[in-house]
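Internal tracking record. Fields below are filled automatically when a chain is submitted to the structure queue. Please do not edit lines marked as system-generated. If the sequence contains nonstandard residues, flag them in the REMARKS field before resubmitting.
Queue: standard
Priority: normal
Entity type: single polypeptide chain
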Amino acid sequence: MISPLRLSIALLVLVLAEIPAVAQISFTTAVDLALKNSPRVKAAEAEAAKAQAVLEEMNAAYIPTLVGGSGLGYSYGFPVGQPSVVNVNSQSLIFNYSQQDYVRAARASLNAANLALRDVRQAVAEDAAITYLALDRDQQRQAALGDQNNYAARLVRIVQDRLDAGQDTPIDLTTARLTAAQIRLARLRAEDVTEADREHLARLTGLPAAGLSVVSSSIPELTPPATDDAPLGPMTSPAVESAYAVAKAKQQTAFGDDRYLWRPQIYFVAQYSRFSKINNYDLYYSNFQHNNAGIGIQITLPVFDAVHKAKARESAADAARAQHDAEAARDQFLEGRLRVRHVTAELAARAEVAGLDQQLAQQQLDVMLVELNAGTGNSSAQQMTPKDEQSSRIAEREKYLAYLEAGFQMKQAQINLMRQTGDLENWLKSAAQSQALDASKPQ
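SYSTEM-GENERATED OUTPUT FOLLOWS
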């Protein structure tokens, strides 16, 4: 028979197993994990590795190849072919007008791949940072909505009591119940948004979503929005520079394809073969040599090749298209950065208004609480009631929720603007250094 103590322990273990573990993650850790686990970053790294291999392949054309083999066989009558016990061939490029263009194209492609990797890393870091801020906003909003829901429930009870006492009307009760219902709906919607942001952050970091939460104190300070007369920063971004590098690579390829005809190509060639003794070479050659070797230079001059002429036209058109795409990407980047800059300034002003509005509501609530507790001292003035208190608390929380949303939108725009101006990497590095310094300090 199981003792009561063991049964209690088993039940406690089952209950604890059902409670999800709360995993708190700091801001810089979330960004680092997102960069390490992102499939987009890994794909861009693979593309950069491929570009590096292509560059090595273009340079390897000048390194002699070495191929060995054997071609044993039986022959009757005059030997056809060259049956050999061992044959070794070597060949390498010495000079080709087009090859250097292809090497430069491969080098430009590698530069484009590295710039694209940098742009992808910035995009993933931006996504992780904004998602972290969103989840922090969600957690604070959930707490505020919880307070607001409690105030609304008290308001309904107070109005119900006042209605029973003949001090309020059924319309007042319906209004209070409507307010409570609207707050419950807002909580449900906020919970959905919170779960979506938590799931997204979990996918970015590779951590389980259950119990995942953020630490508000780990979020680094954001620089104030730039004024309209402040310099815009660099005129390009990694994505734009990558587009121009792609255009340069295609242009070099077009040069190489255009220089194929009427230009000599020089190769180094070497060959060794040991012919078989079992074939009847001796019947037709009086002084047959089994060991044979040759070394020399092979020169070719392409005179006419319709395929390569069409290929050159194709490469030229592809290079022109890439150049136009790079210019379009540059114009889109400049316009987008200017637009984000103006939006950031507007959102900063909106956040300031929301903050002052919430501060005013809090001050008015404090004044009302003092009057409610101590009385106004004026019997002819309207006296504050518990109903007024709950209504003011609900209004203050509503202003606070608006302040939270405006602050998040401003921070989101600031992070996007930092990416546009090239300051995002420096901001993340300074945040990581600050966290490392705080961790090294004695507690």
